[in-house]
Design brief:
This protein is mainly alpha-helical. Helix content is 57%, strand content 0%. The longest helix is centred in the N-terminal third of the chain and has 22 residues.
Length: 101
């Protein structure tokens, strides 16, 4: 089986074309193909992005703190409504003082 020069040149041309296609579409160089640096359309920048500062937790007021904790306290101590109201007002007063320190 003889290989002619025409077939050899055609095979070489296909090889070069395949390399060229892989270079453009496989890695997506400079706007061609699927995106830059193989990221498939999601381009990334070399410039670092500033991170958003973490939000500080909202400071709860004394009323909110006591109102959040009162159901558990009342259930644990088995308080009636009057005792719950008295304890709640006393706790609000002292929690407010503690916050102001």
């Amino acid at each position: 089986m003889k290989i002619s020069k025409t077939y050899l040149v055609a095979l070489f041309a296909l090889l070069l074309t395949g390399v060229e296609l892989q270079a453009q579409y496989g890695y997506g160089g400079n706007g061609y193909g699927y995106g830059s640096r193989g990221s498939y359309g999601r381009a990334r920048t070399a410039i670092p992005q500033a991170q958003e500062p973490e939000k500080e937790p909202e400071n709860l007021t004394a009323d909110e703190i006591v109102d959040n904790e009162m159901p558990a306290i009342a259930a644990a101590l088995e308080l009636n409504e009057f005792e719950t109201a008295v304890l709640s007002s006393v706790l609000k007063k002292y929690v407010q003082e503690r916050i102001e320190m």
